[in-house]
Amino acid sequence: MLNFNFYNPTEIFFGENQIAEITKAIPKNAKVIVVYGGGSIKKNGIYDQVSQALRDFTWGEFAGIEPNPTYQTCMKAVAKIKQEGFDYILAVGGGSVIDGSKFIAAAANFSGEPWDILSKGAEISSALPIGVVLTLPATGSESNSFSVVSNSETHDKLPFASIEVQPKFAVLDPQVMKTLPQRQLTNGVVDAFVHTMEQYLTYSVDAKVQDRFAEGLLMTLMEEGPKLVSESVDYKVRANVMWSATMALNGLIGAGVPQDWATHMIGHEITAVYGLDHAQTLAIILPRMMAEQKETKRDKLLQYAERVLGLDIADEDSAIATAIELTEQFFHSVNMKTRLADYDIGEDAVNKITEQLERHGMTALGEHQAVTLEKSRNIIRASI
Amino acid sequence: MLNFNFYNPTEIFFGENQIAEITKAIPKNAKVIVVYGGGSIKKNGIYDQVSQALRDFTWGEFAGIEPNPTYQTCMKAVAKIKQEGFDYILAVGGGSVIDGSKFIAAAANFSGEPWDILSKGAEISSALPIGVVLTLPATGSESNSFSVVSNSETHDKLPFASIEVQPKFAVLDPQVMKTLPQRQLTNGVVDAFVHTMEQYLTYSVDAKVQDRFAEGLLMTLMEEGPKLVSESVDYKVRANVMWSATMALNGLIGAGVPQDWATHMIGHEITAVYGLDHAQTLAIILPRMMAEQKETKRDKLLQYAERVLGLDIADEDSAIATAIELTEQFFHSVNMKTRLADYDIGEDAVNKITEQLERHGMTALGEHQAVTLEKSRNIIRASI
């Protein structure tokens, strides 16, 4: 096991009717700005529940955080916060709303040029406190310190991280998933699955707890994911997927182990250029990444084949090939496509995405920095 | 899955040479009291590492917290703290030192009679901050809000819990286990194993993540435990056991599931009356509890048999019997005894322990409150 620090101070309120708990979790004298997305929360009743819980608070709202939240939109929220003196952000939404809120929280307190937070990794010394009402389980952003924000003008999609922007609390009520479109449920399952794989499918450092926890999440998502996108889904399935998605990226399974994230880096560029959903890009790249990195990941691929998929691994190469195939089949089982061509993207992606990777310095990706630009090019070509 | 709140704000510093990190984790202007036990930390170099890290702090010390820390000893520390104005506790030790430090931290700020915290569940509104250097992995006390303190005069052993006494940070350096006596290593493995079982072996609420995480801990402890008590143990084994013990009782695997704790309640009384180590009592009671509660725990016993022990469960009763037998064998494999008679305790325990349980109101224990006094009596009799 590698040395690690693990610190996750987000308080979780999990279960039915937990939205009312925000009343206790937000300081009484806070001036709250509710940040949300395209307005679906007004149709599914979540906005009403939040309004009801905030009835004794002073509060306002900022709507319109887009999927892949943009720097431009976030800065409009920052202007409103500064003008009206809000001092607490309540993010009501999925990963995009939460990621956007994290940037807003940091930028609102930042004395320099906020774009530097993303472009230069400028240090954040304080941020507005954030609470979360999660409406879409997927990214884990509700209980971690990471954020990814896009620049709509330059097509950059850049990450930042700071403990200052980690949510103080997150409400996870599986009932909010009832009204989600199937595409978002599918995205959530795939996103959580690939988050887990990025922290698991590397090389062994004999970290048995982390391995078994990751395997537990993968098995749960493989069992529950297909049920979630079926007609007769029940509360238990939603609850299991929601908790898996949070646990997949709250720092726990990645503590003390090597991490990969090459699939994410290539996926981010596909989203930036072609506008695919984040999870859609992951489902395309991961199977090809597994195949391309078969040798560097051999031991963990076999462990995955045996423990998660229950395969006989006597014939190693055959077991690995089957494991990759079953992974792609799992994506299909939750109605996720796994080829660029499924989105009418062809050969031109090979150069375009490789150039983007080069421009962002992504020339040695993965846990061994073994995914060179040439290998990324091969992976993208194989993904068409 | 049941509704739950999960909040664990303890920062973990895990790995070799992490004791130096306390320099960053304790506020610079703190006046630190180092609380420890019988002085083994002076022989194994940990006291020296802590002294070195604290060289720029104002600090003092309180030694002599005993195994099963007593109210009487803790109150001596409280007197010293009040007299000399310490405002930060650094607990250097195992579960007893940490549990004692939690009571000291609460009592130092308590305006009433501190015994009421234990005897009447008096509410704690503040406590001194606590940091931990863990020297013995076992109880999980380093990252939870629980404490158990004994009264040496009345033979009461009573728990309390408050987020106010949860450690701000905990240093987990597996190297500290190098010099531990085998008895303490054995105790640690068994303690962590039974903590996990108390939160796992109940009835299913279809909480798949929690179940798989618990199973991961049980499997890890069963694999690594016997290695830990052998001659040629290496760092990896120590690290896996240490992290398992923390994860076994930091609130995570118990969030959203029913919990048992009947084995602990009976075990506490055995320690109070006969002075056995906490883990020794658990290893005696758990196999008998499993047998006695075979019907109420049937589904989970079968799940344990199949997933953790890899048994064929076609013949259910036979699988359950084998699972109980293998659990007891596991205790033996880490050199832990599993009978009262192994400690020269005989028939008189049946009445004595049952009377203690009655005196403390422990008349309906377990996840179904199905362990009546009569059943406890049967369990104790079967444990001889």
UniProtKB/TrEMBL annotation, chains A, B:
Record keywords: Oxidoreductase
Keyword Oxidoreductase listed: yes
Domain (Alcohol dehydrogenase iron-type/glycerol dehydrogenase GldA) ranges: 9-174
One of the record's GO cellular component terms: cytosol
Cofactor: Fe cation
Limits of the Fe-containing alcohol dehydrogenase-like C-terminal domain: 188-357
Top-rank taxon, per record: Bacteria
GO MF assignments: alcohol dehydrogenase (NADP+) activity; butanol dehydrogenase (NAD+) activity; metal ion binding; methylglyoxal reductase (NADPH) (acetol producing) activity
Protein family per UniProt: Belongs to the iron-containing alcohol dehydrogenase family.
Protein known as: Aldehyde oxidoreductase
